[in-house]
Automatic annotation (TrEMBL):
Annotated Class II aldolase/adducin N-terminal domain residues: 19-198
MF (Gene Ontology): aldehyde-lyase activity; L-ribulose-phosphate 4-epimerase activity; metal ion binding
Name of this chain's protein: L-ribulose-5-phosphate 4-epimerase
Catalytic activity: L-ribulose 5-phosphate = D-xylulose 5-phosphate
Pfam family membership, one: Aldolase_II
The protein's Enzyme Commission number: 5.1.3.4
InterPro entries: Aldolase_class_II_sugar_metab (IPR050197), Aldolase_II/adducin_N (IPR001303), Aldolase_II/adducin_N_sf (IPR036409)
Keywords: Metal-binding, Zinc
Length: 224
Protein backbone atom coordinates (compact mmCIF):
# COMPACT_ATOMS: atom_id res chain seq x y z
CA UNK A 1 0.00 0.00 0.00
CA UNK A 2 1.18 3.50 -0.77
CA UNK A 3 0.17 6.54 1.24
CA UNK A 4 -2.03 9.24 -0.25
CA UNK A 5 -0.86 12.84 -0.43
CA UNK A 6 -2.95 15.17 1.78
CA UNK A 7 -5.16 17.47 -0.36
CA UNK A 8 -3.29 20.65 0.59
CA UNK A 9 0.08 19.11 -0.24
CA UNK A 10 -1.30 17.71 -3.49
CA UNK A 11 -2.51 21.17 -4.51
CA UNK A 12 1.00 22.57 -3.97
CA UNK A 13 2.52 19.71 -5.99
CA UNK A 14 0.06 20.32 -8.82
CA UNK A 15 0.81 24.06 -8.85
CA UNK A 16 4.58 23.47 -8.89
CA UNK A 17 4.25 20.83 -11.59
CA UNK A 18 2.19 23.11 -13.82
CA UNK A 19 4.87 25.80 -13.42
CA UNK A 20 7.49 23.23 -14.44
CA UNK A 21 5.42 22.18 -17.45
CA UNK A 22 5.27 25.82 -18.58
CA UNK A 23 9.05 26.16 -18.11
CA UNK A 24 9.65 22.88 -19.94
CA UNK A 25 7.47 24.07 -22.82
CA UNK A 26 9.50 27.27 -23.11
CA UNK A 27 12.79 25.35 -23.06
CA UNK A 28 11.59 22.95 -25.74
CA UNK A 29 10.40 25.83 -27.93
CA UNK A 30 13.67 27.73 -27.49
CA UNK A 31 15.73 24.70 -28.52
CA UNK A 32 13.36 23.70 -31.35
CA UNK A 33 12.73 20.34 -29.72
CA UNK A 34 9.00 20.23 -30.45
CA UNK A 35 7.15 19.28 -33.60
CA UNK A 36 5.11 21.86 -35.51
CA UNK A 37 1.95 21.04 -33.55
CA UNK A 38 3.91 20.91 -30.24
CA UNK A 39 2.64 17.42 -29.44
CA UNK A 40 4.06 15.93 -26.28
CA UNK A 41 3.50 15.37 -22.59
CA UNK A 42 5.30 15.42 -19.27
CA UNK A 43 4.64 13.50 -16.08
CA UNK A 44 5.86 13.44 -12.49
CA UNK A 45 5.52 10.53 -10.11
CA UNK A 46 4.07 11.49 -6.73
CA UNK A 47 6.66 10.62 -4.06
CA UNK A 48 6.24 7.11 -2.66
CA UNK A 49 2.97 6.51 -4.49
CA UNK A 50 1.60 4.72 -7.51
CA UNK A 51 0.13 7.96 -8.82
CA UNK A 52 1.38 10.54 -11.26
CA UNK A 53 0.76 14.06 -12.46
CA UNK A 54 0.59 14.40 -16.24
CA UNK A 55 0.03 17.30 -18.64
CA UNK A 56 0.16 17.84 -22.40
CA UNK A 57 2.12 20.55 -24.20
CA UNK A 58 -0.63 21.17 -26.75
CA UNK A 59 -4.40 21.05 -27.08
CA UNK A 60 -7.20 22.83 -25.22
CA UNK A 61 -5.94 21.65 -21.81
CA UNK A 62 -2.26 22.32 -22.50
CA UNK A 63 -0.27 22.77 -19.31
CA UNK A 64 -3.10 21.67 -17.01
CA UNK A 65 -2.23 18.75 -14.77
CA UNK A 66 -4.32 15.66 -14.17
CA UNK A 67 -3.71 13.25 -11.28
CA UNK A 68 -3.88 9.61 -12.29
CA UNK A 69 -3.45 6.32 -10.46
CA UNK A 70 -1.15 3.74 -12.01
CA UNK A 71 -4.16 1.50 -12.64
CA UNK A 72 -5.44 4.31 -14.94
CA UNK A 73 -8.86 4.12 -13.29
CA UNK A 74 -8.94 6.90 -10.71
CA UNK A 75 -8.10 10.43 -11.76
CA UNK A 76 -8.56 14.06 -10.81
CA UNK A 77 -8.65 16.90 -13.30
CA UNK A 78 -9.47 16.82 -17.00
CA UNK A 79 -7.96 13.83 -18.75
CA UNK A 80 -8.78 13.25 -22.43
CA UNK A 81 -8.55 9.83 -24.08
CA UNK A 82 -5.21 10.56 -25.77
CA UNK A 83 -3.53 11.64 -22.53
CA UNK A 84 -4.92 8.63 -20.67
CA UNK A 85 -3.60 6.39 -23.45
CA UNK A 86 -0.07 7.78 -23.35
CA UNK A 87 -0.16 7.75 -19.52
CA UNK A 88 -0.14 3.94 -19.72
CA UNK A 89 3.32 4.14 -21.25
CA UNK A 90 4.52 6.60 -18.60
CA UNK A 91 3.26 4.16 -15.95
CA UNK A 92 5.10 1.27 -17.62
CA UNK A 93 8.35 3.24 -17.42
CA UNK A 94 7.81 4.11 -13.73
CA UNK A 95 7.16 0.45 -12.95
CA UNK A 96 10.27 -0.69 -14.81
CA UNK A 97 12.38 2.10 -13.27
CA UNK A 98 11.09 2.66 -9.71
CA UNK A 99 13.76 5.32 -9.09
CA UNK A 100 12.52 7.51 -11.96
CA UNK A 101 10.71 10.70 -10.93
CA UNK A 102 9.72 12.24 -14.29
CA UNK A 103 9.02 11.11 -17.86
CA UNK A 104 8.77 13.25 -21.01
CA UNK A 105 7.51 12.41 -24.49
CA UNK A 106 7.71 14.63 -27.56
CA UNK A 107 7.72 14.35 -31.34
CA UNK A 108 10.98 16.30 -31.53
CA UNK A 109 12.06 16.30 -35.19
CA UNK A 110 15.49 14.65 -35.25
CA UNK A 111 14.87 12.05 -32.55
CA UNK A 112 11.57 11.20 -34.23
CA UNK A 113 13.39 10.93 -37.57
CA UNK A 114 15.75 8.35 -36.05
CA UNK A 115 12.73 6.46 -34.70
CA UNK A 116 11.00 6.55 -38.08
CA UNK A 117 14.19 5.47 -39.87
CA UNK A 118 14.49 2.53 -37.47
CA UNK A 119 17.83 3.63 -36.07
CA UNK A 120 18.96 3.84 -32.44
CA UNK A 121 20.92 6.95 -31.46
CA UNK A 122 24.52 6.01 -30.80
CA UNK A 123 26.96 8.09 -28.75
CA UNK A 124 28.67 10.05 -31.53
CA UNK A 125 28.13 13.57 -30.13
CA UNK A 126 29.98 14.70 -27.00
CA UNK A 127 26.75 15.67 -25.23
CA UNK A 128 25.84 12.00 -24.93
CA UNK A 129 28.99 11.10 -22.99
CA UNK A 130 27.33 12.63 -19.94
CA UNK A 131 24.62 9.97 -19.95
CA UNK A 132 26.05 7.10 -22.04
CA UNK A 133 29.31 5.21 -22.39
CA UNK A 134 30.95 5.40 -25.79
CA UNK A 135 29.68 1.93 -26.75
CA UNK A 136 26.07 2.53 -25.64
CA UNK A 137 23.03 3.90 -27.46
CA UNK A 138 19.56 5.28 -27.00
CA UNK A 139 17.71 2.10 -27.98
CA UNK A 140 15.02 1.72 -30.58
CA UNK A 141 11.96 -0.27 -29.53
CA UNK A 142 10.06 -2.72 -31.66
CA UNK A 143 6.95 -1.33 -33.32
CA UNK A 144 3.70 -1.42 -31.37
CA UNK A 145 0.20 -0.01 -31.94
CA UNK A 146 -0.17 3.56 -30.64
CA UNK A 147 1.19 3.68 -27.07
CA UNK A 148 1.36 -0.06 -26.39
CA UNK A 149 3.74 -0.40 -23.41
CA UNK A 150 5.17 -3.84 -24.28
CA UNK A 151 7.83 -2.67 -26.82
CA UNK A 152 9.10 0.00 -24.43
CA UNK A 153 9.19 -2.45 -21.49
CA UNK A 154 11.25 -4.87 -23.61
CA UNK A 155 13.70 -2.10 -24.55
CA UNK A 156 14.12 -1.02 -20.92
CA UNK A 157 14.77 -4.60 -19.85
CA UNK A 158 17.33 -5.09 -22.62
CA UNK A 159 19.04 -1.73 -21.86
CA UNK A 160 18.85 -1.30 -18.07
CA UNK A 161 21.06 1.82 -18.04
CA UNK A 162 19.35 3.68 -20.89
CA UNK A 163 17.95 7.12 -19.92
CA UNK A 164 15.58 7.20 -22.90
CA UNK A 165 14.19 5.16 -25.76
CA UNK A 166 12.93 5.75 -29.29
CA UNK A 167 9.48 4.33 -29.93
CA UNK A 168 9.68 2.86 -33.43
CA UNK A 169 7.96 4.95 -36.13
CA UNK A 170 6.92 7.45 -33.45
CA UNK A 171 9.28 9.42 -31.21
CA UNK A 172 11.30 9.65 -27.99
CA UNK A 173 10.54 9.00 -24.35
CA UNK A 174 13.12 10.18 -21.80
CA UNK A 175 13.18 10.12 -18.01
CA UNK A 176 15.01 11.45 -14.98
CA UNK A 177 15.54 10.41 -11.40
CA UNK A 178 15.49 14.11 -10.42
CA UNK A 179 12.54 16.12 -11.68
CA UNK A 180 10.50 17.23 -14.68
CA UNK A 181 12.92 19.92 -15.82
CA UNK A 182 15.88 17.52 -15.65
CA UNK A 183 13.97 15.14 -17.94
CA UNK A 184 13.28 18.06 -20.28
CA UNK A 185 16.93 19.11 -20.43
CA UNK A 186 17.94 15.52 -21.12
CA UNK A 187 15.55 15.33 -24.06
CA UNK A 188 16.91 18.62 -25.43
CA UNK A 189 20.46 17.23 -25.25
CA UNK A 190 19.34 14.08 -27.02
CA UNK A 191 17.60 16.10 -29.73
CA UNK A 192 20.73 18.20 -30.30
CA UNK A 193 22.83 15.02 -30.47
CA UNK A 194 20.43 13.51 -33.02
CA UNK A 195 20.63 16.70 -35.10
CA UNK A 196 24.45 16.74 -35.05
CA UNK A 197 24.61 13.04 -35.87
CA UNK A 198 22.29 13.59 -38.84
CA UNK A 199 24.42 16.52 -40.06
CA UNK A 200 27.59 14.45 -39.70
CA UNK A 201 26.02 11.68 -41.78
CA UNK A 202 25.69 14.16 -44.65
CA UNK A 203 29.49 14.56 -44.62
CA UNK A 204 30.34 10.91 -44.17
CA UNK A 205 30.09 8.27 -41.47
CA UNK A 206 29.70 9.57 -37.89
CA UNK A 207 32.79 8.45 -36.03
CA UNK A 208 32.75 6.49 -32.75
CA UNK A 209 34.62 7.65 -29.67
CA UNK A 210 37.74 5.75 -28.61
CA UNK A 211 37.49 3.22 -25.80
CA UNK A 212 37.36 4.88 -22.38
CA UNK A 213 36.24 8.27 -23.74
CA UNK A 214 33.20 8.50 -21.47
CA UNK A 215 35.15 7.79 -18.27
CA UNK A 216 37.89 10.26 -19.21
CA UNK A 217 35.34 12.95 -20.06
CA UNK A 218 33.53 12.47 -16.75
CA UNK A 219 36.81 12.74 -14.84
CA UNK A 220 37.41 16.06 -16.57
CA UNK A 221 33.94 17.33 -15.69
CA UNK A 222 34.43 16.40 -12.03
CA UNK A 223 37.85 18.03 -11.94
CA UNK A 224 36.48 21.27 -13.39
Amino acid sequence: MTSQTPPADLLLLVQQFEQDVASAHQLLQRHQALSANEAGNLSLRLPGQERLLIAAFNGPDAGRAAVLDFDLEQSQGRLNDNLREVAALHVAIYRQRPQVRAVIHTHSPYLSAFAIAGRPLRAHASQLLGVLDEDQEIPLTAWGPRYAPEPVIAALQAHPRAPATLLANHGPFAWSERDALAATRLLINLEESAHLTWLAAQLGTPQPFPAGAAARSRQGWVAS
